[in-house]
Design a protein that fits this description.
This protein is about 35% helix and about 20% strand. The protein is built from 12 helices and 13 strands. It has a 5-stranded antiparallel sheet with strand order 4-5-6-8-7. It has a 3-stranded antiparallel sheet with strand order 1-2-3, with no helix packed on it. It has a 3-stranded antiparallel sheet with strand order 9-11-12. Helix 4 runs antiparallel to helix 8 and helix 8 runs antiparallel to helix 10. It binds adenosine-5'-triphosphate and ligand AZ7. Adenosine-5'-triphosphate binds next to strand 4, strand 5 and strand 6.
Amino acid sequence: EEWKDRGAAVSIQKHIDSNGNQTHRIVKKGVQDFSFGRTLGEGSYSTVLAATDRQTLTEYAIKVLDKRHIIKEKKVKYVNIEKNTLNRLGDHPGIVRLYYTFQDERSLYFVLDLATGGELLGFVKKLGSFDEECTRFYGAQILDAIEYMHSKGVIHRDLKPENVLLDEHMHVKITDFGTAKILDLPSQTRANNSDGKPQLDRQEQDFANNIGIPDHERANSFVGTAEYVSPELLTDKSACKGSDLWAFGCIVFQLLAGRPPFKAGNEYQTFQKIVNLEYQFPPGFPKVARDLVERLLVLDPTKRLTIDNIKSHPFFEGVSWGKQLWKQKAPRLK
Ligand SMILES: Nc1ncnc2c1ncn2[C@@H]1O[C@H](COP(=O)(O)OP(=O)(O)OP(=O)(O)O)[C@@H](O)[C@H]1O
Ligand SMILES: O=C(O)C[C@H](Cc1nc2cc(Cl)cc(Cl)c2[nH]1)c1ccc(Cl)cc1
């Protein structure tokens, strides 16, 4: 039985010696402990490979990042945010779990849950759209994972069907936390310093210090994927928990309609549609789902449904939330 301290690539193994005494062995994982297999996919700064732990034969997805490339592209902050965020979110069935991180002279390694089912986006494209039962199941699992993230003070900020992976049971595994925001505890609001500059949270401060981002770029330079970006991020450059629920509304719409609500020829036009709340439901869009989406795609984040409101919305009637949601068989996608 292994107790894993995910952060420092160390796992502590309980060991019973020949006299029957219990001891602990410290095991430091590294590249040599895994045999690498096929490439699962490529990111802008990463390659994800299937890999097997030589000792336990457990299969993982290992995300490999080239150090030089990361530094050149100024992505050090995002890699460290991904690590810190994944370490905080270590215990939920709907979130890709980080088991170890380690590095060698050339690369950084994230040892993650293997999601063999690929991206939810692939299924929406293949089928055109989901029926209500499938939308309810996948919507409920995504919402349950969002509730857990928010309870740990994490805002994803880039939720979209590409970042919703599926495991071998066709259950949800949310990934891609490099652009997440960790709400500094205890208060989320940020007082400005005497010089009128926004006071940075610890993470942003030490990033800004050790990489030296010019002041004007420091505040929230990140914007998610155009189609799912919330209006508040476009108008006053700040994301909140409600921003993830806006993206959730876009995802529910897309599963049933086969396209996201806000999509135009280019990013700028898409942003225009979002801030003007310009979208239409296709004919035949289910009424109950339409009511839910209309209460999520609200410009004022404080007027959007909360997670509890969503869970008790008629669209999710009959869903058993909590552990049961993750034990049940996924409905066949048809
Ligand atoms: N845990 C995983 N299990 C299986 N496949 C994965 C896993 N994580 C990522 N992938 C796949 O590997 C590919 C690259 O993922 P990665 O997160 O490295 O980059 P990305 O976020 O998709 O791209 P970018 O960095 O440009 O946003 C994606 O297609 C993703 O579907
Ligand atoms: O927190 C830790 O364990 C230490 C390091 C932190 C860290 N060391 C780095 C070196 C380079 Cl060159 C680039 C980045 Cl982003 C780096 N991040 C680390 C190692 C591996 C991974 Cl995947 C992430 C962070």
